[in-house]
Structures are given as C-alpha cells and as structure tokens.
Amino acid sequence: MTGTSDDERGAEPGAELGAGTDVARGGIFAGSDPFAIARSWLAEAEGAEPNDANAMALATVDAAGMPNVRMVLLKDIEADAFVFYTNYTSRKAEEIESAGKAAFVIHWKSLRRQIRVRGTVTREAGEKADAYFASRSLKSRLGAWASHQSQPLSSRAALMARVAKITARYGASPPRPPFWGGYRIVPEEIEFWADGAYRLHDRFRWIRASDRESWQVTRLNP
C-alpha cells in the first residue's frame, strides 16, 4: 500500500522533527492582539481557499444541554468580537438567547490552520446590521423575509410563493426584517492552531475573564 502515512500527515518535504514555531510566538502567531492575528489569518485564507474562507462551524446547546452545530459565515472581526448574521427566530438564535454563550471553529485546509473561539454573545441589531443587510444582494434580502428559518416547510413551492409575495410588497428596496440581524461573539477564549509535521502542532490559547482584563497566553501541547 502506497501513500502518505498518518504520522507524516502535515509534514512538508524535508521537514525536521523539531521544526515549528518558537515559544516566543513568532511568525504567524506574532502580535499582542488576537483579533489582529485572526484578521491576518482570514485575509490569507481568502487568497488560498477555493470558496467561503469565512465559513465557520458554530456550536450552541439547547435547554437540555444537547449540542447543535452548523456552518455560518463570519462577516466581521471587530476590535473585541466576531460577528455573524442570522434569523432571530431560528433554532440557533433560540439557543444563543437562552444560553448567552456559543463557540465556533474556523478551519482552513489550504493553510493547515484553525481558530477556535468560546465566549458570550450579544445582538448586533443596530446601524451595523442595517448596513450589512443593505449590502446583500436583492434576492438574499427578499429571501431573508421569506424564510421562516428552522420551521417545517410543506414544499419548495410554498417557499417560492412567499418570495413572490415579499417581492410584490417591497420590490427592490426591502428593509432589514425585525427578526433578522447579527450576533457578536465576545471571546473569553481564543485558540490559534497550526498543523505541524508528524502531528507536532503549534497551539496558543488566549484567555481573559472579561474585556477589561489582559489576555493570558499559553502554549499548549499538540
């Protein structure tokens, strides 16, 4: 049987066993602002991924503690938060509102890197949400009105009938629905991970109890 062994996965040609990032967080891990590092990684991924470099797996839990995970699009990295948009009547929104917390991971095969985030969640429902909604394509804006997200649907024809009704009502200028907007994930923990040769990965965890405190950075074992 030929091919790359599991132990060699991630190894670059000529990679040495001891190769990797130094403890001082040089190279791709350098910097005192984790949000700046995240923006830098995302920008690099946008030039390397075939599509949707901002796709992230968002995890929430329901009232019984049962987890749910789904893909959403990261739309902004603010000075203190990661932002995505959704329907406020969706199941994910219901679980976010109940728990007040969420987690996500964004992984890039092209870069062999990922970022994991856990934190508290607040709404982004003001002018920023209005501006983002207005930037979307017309069909996406109409679709946001037509979708009763996560609710049972009798047929696709029923959905398209709602789209037609909304189109007749709003034409080319649908406003942002009151049930649609953003969420800001304010991290308490961020982990940056980079694939290493022979599974000797580089991991750095940033933790702080609140946005008024300084980040504590720890290198983790692979």
CATH class of the domain at 21-133 and 179-220: Mainly Beta
Q: Which blocks of ≥5 consecutive residues have pLDDT under 50?
A: 11-23
Q: Which percent range fits the helix content?
A: 10-25%
Order of helices and strands: HEEEEHEEHHHEEE
Distance from first to last alpha carbon: 28 Å
Describe the structure.
It is built from 5 helices and 9 strands. The protein has a domain at 21-133 and 179-220: Electron Transport, Fmn-binding Protein, Chain A (Pnp Oxidase, Chain A, Roll). The protein starts with 33 loop residues before the first helix and ends with a strand. The chain is elongated and about 55 Å long. Helix content is 25%, strand content 31%. Helix 4 (138-146) crosses helix 5. Strands 1, 2, 3, 4, 5, 6, 7, 8 and 9 form a 9-stranded antiparallel beta sheet that branches. Residues 11-23 have low confidence and may be disordered. It has 222 residues and is of the alpha+beta class. Homodimer. Keywords: Flavoprotein, FMN, Oxidoreductase, Pyridoxine biosynthesis. Substrate binds at residues 75, 132, 136, 140, 199-201.
